[in-house]
Amino acid sequence: MDFISLLSPEYFLLAAAGSLVGIIFGAIPGMTATMAVAVCLPLTYSLGLHEGLALLLGLYVGGISGGLVPAILLNIPGTPSSITTTFDGHPMAQRGEAERALKICIVSSLVGGLFSAVILFLFAPLLSDFAIKFSYVEKFLIIFFALTVIASLSSNMLVGIFSGMIGVFLSLIGTYDVGVGGNGEYRLMADFMVPYLEEGFSLLPVLIGLFGLATIFLEAERGAKDEVGEKRIQLTQGTPFKLNVFRGQFVNMLRSSSIGTFVGMLPGIGGSAASVLAYSQQKNFSKDPSKMGKGAPEGLIASESANNALTGGALIPLLSLGIPGDSTTAVLIGAFTLQGLQVGPLFIGENLDTWYSMMIGLVFANLVMFGIMFFAIKHIAKVVMVPKYVLYPIIIMMCVVGAYAINYGIMFDVWTLLIFGLFGYVAQKIGLEIAPLVIGFILGSSAEVYFVKSLESFGTLSIFFTKSPIAIVLWLMIAASVLFSVYLALKARRNSKSRAIEV
Amino acid sequence: MKRLISGMRLGVCALAAAVAMQAAAELPSNIRVVIGSKSTGGDTYQSSSIVAEALSEKLGVNFKVDATGAPAAFKAVERSRSSDGSTIMVFHDQAYLGVLYGQKGYDDPFANYSIGPTFAINPGNAYLVSKKSPYSSVEQIIDAAGNGETVRVAIQPGGVSEIGYSALKNAVKLKYPGKEGNLTPVNTGSQDSKNQAMFDGLADVINGSVQSNEQYTRLPADDQKAMSFVWLTAREQTIAQANEDGMGKTTRADLLKFVAPNVQVPMAEGQDFTFDKEFFFLYNKDIDPAFVEAIDKALGEIYAEGKIQEMQKKSFFIPNFKPAAEARTYLKEKNDRIADVINAIKG
């Protein structure tokens, strides 16, 4: 129990401060948990390992959680993994239930975060042994599985799949990076574009452009006149938050937290896949899937419990294999290396004090995140009451600053934001579906890498079906997900036809 | 008396600060250090942070390390073509290996940039096999390839990760001409993909590092993840400078078993191939010679004080200060020597 002596008041203070700063980073469109951790990493030099880790864990948990605020209030995912929070969160905010949506998300985030911390604590070495059974083939199938959400998210399945394909193609522009096993060649661009697109379009500017800026352009076209009088959003207009909203959602929460933890522990899959998978599975299992995407609390619960469960999940391979599970833990590993500490399969056994103090830091950061957000929410939710002609210019400015900062000052990222804002505006005008397009963009490049590497490694397409029992299980899940989406689409069409006949 | 002493202390501090300020007067107050890696958990960031911290302290200038990755870093240095050194770069041998291997996004650093001082070596570049592998030494690997077996080596192509593979291939060619094709690359990316390639049975040998893989070498042989070092590319005298404790529970004496001449990868008659991964500064072509001199001088003093060496060794780096002019000559020679190996296997 030597580790208790390591837990000084500064330790807890730093974890709490980290959570607060992380929430602010996550809540500002364009700023991410990864950025928060990267900015504060040099501080760990002077803080020492345990205090430094407490700060970084706070930033990590706060940063991931803070993303839900702009997702709900502004329809801009604060972090890529809160993309599915926009689907139901923003419709709720628009009908005056912003506070309720925020509180549902915060409770779900806490449950997801704590669930993954418990799993990390109890099963880390065991799960890391399971994680290494996922080779290129299984990782491709997981991403393919996540891509099936496109079918269930689309209002018109063909247009949705088409939009998703555009997203995949856009994600492939740039160098086929040797860092992921590629050949280093440029693709899908003319020579004059090389200086700008060498590394492709950056994820976050694309995301914020398509979601945030496009919405602002559409609103601008409509004008601010409908904001006055009774049409203006009121905070207490809709159903108030009550804990009974979670009644019947236990399985959803458990499944989504498990998906989040599981995806987090697979290096190279990416955090966004967790919330996308959890969301699509909830839609498949929902009693009334037609409500999802229109402001259903169950969608928020799935999305937020999954993306916070990522935190513990991504720490599993970091602490039991020395391999970061996501982009933020890849920065976190810097805190260890800066202190000259090795992470690997023997890390936990050889550094029990650090391990215990990290676990306490993780749980504490989750509790602080909950405390800060739950009680500050009344004030945060008031953002929706700010007149749009005041709010939108501020948001655009913040997005521009965030886009410029995301890769340490690349001006093309600002152009990317604006180009995709306009593209999102036009795409909606001509009937393309934005959510499938974005999901295609987020998952496309990983899907390509794992697909190509599978073929390079095994030399035959049949390997996708015969590689392992895990692959077969994944195929069954993919088939079930697709069939269920088709069934839902047919049912919706039948319903709308019969409604039309009744009229 | 106490007051007098504290008064004198204050005076000395003020004088020191004034001297530092004067020295700093010729330098920008903020210097951005872009690095050739996007990772803040890797050796480039770590070694750059150590040296940037020391320079900040010495010169009273704020050095800020940004992990931009190679193409963006080269562009940033190129873009700020001002001579004042407000944006400088830190990278390692990859800067010229990228050119030798024909990687996109790399310009000849000797022709297009000004080479700055070297300051550290990462001695950890390693090659490993599974503990269940039929091969337990480099000699066996070379012989297996020479006798017609296909030996698959997981690397990240186009740089530091590939150079050891190129040297192994060259060694097969020297001993068994025409058989070098039996040593084949498995192109993976990050360290976890290389490890995974071994776990999946897709690679017989993987490129790794002492820092990342040491714990894997201590796992019991029946663990799927267990590995053994077969070769460290560093020179013997480089590893000999590491702390006696080595890395993790693998001591310096243990590590020395895996370097030349204990492990031989012939490069030419009577000459073994070795490779130290060395970190150095890169400036833009128009850099003010006074800036170059100021950094050289500051680093000279920092290394003379001896504190930075302790810090570097604690993080498993080998101190390696060479002023800019010396570094340029040395790295150019190294570039030419490696180009010979790459050209030999091309032909």
Structural description of this entry:
The complex is a heterodimer of chains A (503) and B (347). Chain A has a domain at 1-134 and 249-390. Chain A contains 23 helices and 2 strands. Chain A has helices at residues 9-27, 33-40, 43-47, 49-66, 68-74, 83-94, 98-131, 136-147, 149-153, 157-172, 194-197, 203-222, 250-264, 271-285, 297-321, 327-338, 347-350, 352-380, 388-406, 411-429, 434-458, 463-466, 469-502; strands at 174-175, 186-187. By secondary structure, chain B is of the alpha/beta class. Chain B is 46% helix and 20% strand. A 6-stranded mixed β-sheet of chain B has the order 2-1-3-12-4-13. A 5-stranded mixed β-sheet of chain B has the order 7-6-8-5-9, with helices on both faces. Chain B starts with a helix and ends with a helix. The interface between A and B is large, with 50 and 55 residues.
CATH architecture of the largest domain in chain B: 3-Layer(aba) Sandwich
Helical fraction of chain B: 40-55%
Looking at this structure, what is the CATH superfamily of the largest domain in chain B? Bordetella uptake gene, domain 1
* Biggest interface: A-B, 50 and 55 residues
Which regions of chain A contain 5 or more consecutive residues with pLDDT less than 50? none
Mean pLDDT of chain B: 91
Number of domains of chain B: 2
Physical arrangement of strands within the biggest beta sheet of chain A: 1-2
Cα distance, first to last residue of chain A?
Answer: 72 Å
Q: How far do the termini of chain B sit from each other?
A: 79 Å
What's the main sheet of chain B like?
A: 6 strands, mixed
Beta-strand percentage range of chain A: under 5%
Number of strands of chain A: 2
Helix content of chain A: over 70%
